[in-house]
Amino acid sequence: MNIVFENTYARLPSRFYVRQAPVAVTAPGLVKLNHSLAVELGLEPDLLSSPSGLAVLAGNSVPDGAEPLAMAYAGHQFGGFVPQLGDGRAILLGEVLDPRGERFDIQLKGSGQTPFSRAGDGRAWLGPVLREYIVSESMHGLGIPTTRSLAAVSTGEPVYRESELPGAVLTRVARSHVRIGTFEYFFAREDAEALRHLADYVIDRHYPESRLDENPCLALLRSVIARQAHLVAQWLGVGFIHGVMNTDNMSIAGETIDYGPCAFMDTYHPGTVYSSIDRNGRYAFGNQPPIAQWNLSRLAQSLLPLIDEDPDRAVDKAQAAIDDFPGIFEQARLDCFRAKLGLGKAHSGDAELVDALLRTMADASADFTNTFRALCDAAEGLNDGFCTELGNSAAASDWLGRWRERIDHEAIQPADRATQMRRVNPVVIPRNHRVAAALDTAVSGDLDPFEELLQILASPWGERPHSSVYRLPPEPHEVVHQTFCGT
Ligand code: AMP
Ligand code: MG
C-alpha cells in the first residue's frame, strides 16, 4: 500500500499518546470507499480497494510510514469532568499531505481496544459507522467544516450491544484530532510543559498567524473562539443538532467531529433534542451557542498558564476573549441567515426579521429546510409554498410583507436574488427517517438506498426530479424521535 505518511503528532512527547497498532479482524469486506475524497487526498482509489488497501482500512496491516497511536485526552461530558478519556476505539495511523500540501489525519475508528478503552470493546458496528459516513459527507456537501469519511469496512466479527451486530471500521479524515479535551488533559495534570508543546503544535498546524501576535496563545484562543462561533452558526443555518457537544468532541481546528446521536431537524423548534442520552436537553438545538461558549471557557481555562504568568492578568485576558463569543457568534449567525433570506447589506432590523420568522416557524411547526427553500420561490413572487409551509397563518403573511418591504430596499432582480438564495438554502438534508431507512437496508446487505442518498446529499442545492422524495418531511409513522450514540 503506497500511502505517503508525514507524521507530526507522533513527534510530540510520548505522554501525548500510546503507541498502539489496530487490532486485526477476521474477514474484512469493503462496504464503501470514498473515491472522490481519496483522489482529493492524493491517494489511489484502486489501491485502497485492492486486498492490500482493504487490509489497511480494516486495521489488519500497518502500512509503511504509519505510526499508529491512540491519542490521550480528557473532557467535560455533560458538564462533568473526566480526567482521562482518550482514543478508546480509534487509532491514528498518521498524517498525509494532499496535493495542495494540506495536512490530514488518517484515523481508524472501531479498530479495537487501546489502553484508553476502559470497559469498552474498542469496536463499532456497521449502523453507526455508515451513519457517520453519510452525515459527515452530507455536512461536507453543505459546505460546513467537518471531518470526512474515507471508507467503511465490515470486520466479519460480531459486536455485542443490546444484541449481536455486524462489526465495522470507519476511516476518518480530519484536519487534526486535537480537541478542547486534549488541552484539558494536560491542564488537569498541571503539566505546563505539555500544554506549551500542544499550543505550539496547534499554532503551527492550524493557526500559524497567531505566532505573529504579541501573545500567541491568547491569539490562538481567539482564533478557536472565532472558528467555533462560525461553525455553530453554520449548524444553526441548516438545522443541525450535534447532540454530544462534550469538550472531547470539539475540534480545535473548528471541524464538526464525532457524529453520534446527531440529527438534522425536520420541524423547527429551538428546544429540539434527539439524543437518547441528552435527558435534560443540555445539547438542544438552540442551546448550542451557549454550550460552545461554555466549552471554549474550558479551553480558555486550560490555556491560562500560557496566556500570562500573572494568574489574575491571565484570567482577565482569557475572560475578555470568551466574552467576545456572543458578539462573534451573533454576527456569524446573522450573516448566515441574511444570506438565507436573500438580504445583501446589513440593516439594523435584520436580527428581528430573522427571529420573527423563526418564531413564526416554531409556532406553525414548520419544516425548517422546506420553509427556507420555499422562501427562495417567494423571492420570485411565488408565495404559496412558503405560506403553506407556515400553515397559511396571518403571521406568515405579515412576515412576508415585512420581508418584501426589506428586500425592496436592495436593487437586485428577483430571479437573481432567488438564485443566490438557492445557493444557501439546501433542498435536501439527511433527514433522520431517510438515513434510518437507508441504514436499515444497508445493514441487511442492500447498499443501493445508502448509495442513492449519499449521491443526493453530495449536491444539496439543486432541484432534481428524483430528489423530490428526499425533500419530504417524515409521515407521522416515519418520525424518528430518538437517535443513539451507537457506541
Ligand atoms: P464518544 O462518545 O464516541 O465521544 O466517546 C467517549 C469516550 O468513550 C472516548 O474516550 C471513546 O474512545 C470511548 N469509547 C466510546 N465507545 C467505545 C468503545 N466501544 N470501546 C472503547 N472505548 C469507547
Ligand atoms: Mg468522542
Structural notes for this entry:
By secondary structure, this protein is of the alpha+beta class. Among the domains are: 8-174, no CATH class; 180-333, no CATH class. It is built from 18 helices and 12 strands. Strands 2, 6, 7, 8, 9 and 10 form a 6-stranded antiparallel sheet that branches. A hairpin with a 2-residue loop joins strand 4 and strand 5 (80-82). The chain is globular. The mean pLDDT is 96. The protein binds adenosine monophosphate and magnesium ion (MG).
Indicate the proportion of strand residues.
5-15%
Order of helices and strands: EEHHHEEEEEEHEEHHHEEHHHHHHHHHHH
> From the structure provided, what is the oligomeric state, counting identical versus distinct chains?
single chain
Q: Tell me the number of helical segments per DSSP (H or I, 4 or more residues long).
A: 18
**What is the helical fraction, as a range of percent?**
40-55%
Number of strands: 12
Distinct ligands: adenosine monophosphate, magnesium ion
Distance between the termini: 30 Å
Give the low-confidence spans.
none
User: Residue-averaged pLDDT, rounded?
Assistant: 96
- Taking Cα atoms only, what radius of gyration do you get, to the nearest Å? 23 Å
Principal-axis shape equals globular
Structural class computed from helices and strand pairing:
alpha+beta
Main sheet overview: 6 strands, antiparallel
